[in-house]
Amino acid sequence: MDLLSFLAKYDDTLKNSFIESTTFRDTSNRIQNELIKCTADVEMDHIKSEIKKAPFVSITLDETIDVANLSQLSIVVRYVLDGIPQERLLGLLDITSERTADTMLKIVCDIISGLECGSKLVAQSYDGAAVIAGHLGGLQSKVKEKYKHAVFVDCIAHRLNLVLSRSMDNIKVCKVFFLTISSLVTFFSKSSKTTRALDIHVQKRFPKVAPTRWNYNGRLVQTVFQYRDALIHFFHDVWDNKEI
């Protein structure tokens, strides 16, 4: 809506359409979704035409939690066209309810089948849930059974996160520090009463922590440091008044 309003300032036809039209203004959610779908179909046809010319293709899936606490799976393909690497985002899928290796395998197979590039698939890379990159029962071995040339490539950023996490586990002071600070997340998320108390007294919720994402720990430390005075005051009130 903001973009359309902005464009209407410089386009008299669009401006008059907003002012005079009573039936078709291009602003209904149905029309906007149809326009988005049409654009997506055109882009997908373009990607398919490029992949037909490419000698090989790789696929990358990355799972993360969004602000609504839903697991979103991003789907990306990479290929080389005329000597230039190309990377295309195909879309995002909500996999909150089902994240098994078999479900992921079906997603990969549907993508490869839709792009008609099974014989060109030479690499696969995943990050997120442990089931995705597991060596024996995970997705990579299942994909390799169907596409023999699809070599698994580990995520370098994921490796760095694991190195940092394991290093901190071997330093007692650091291990105790991160266990203590992560327990705050558990404490304030165990019930709606503690969550509401956090919203009232601190007015800031803690970011979730994950063992394979070091940046999550960094965000948590920064949040606790920024709101440490409010947290200290809150816990003093809890101790004195036994509110929770």
From TrEMBL:
Source organism, top-level taxon: Eukaryota
InterPro entries, sorted: RNaseH-like_sf
Annotated protein name in UniProt: DUF4371 domain-containing protein
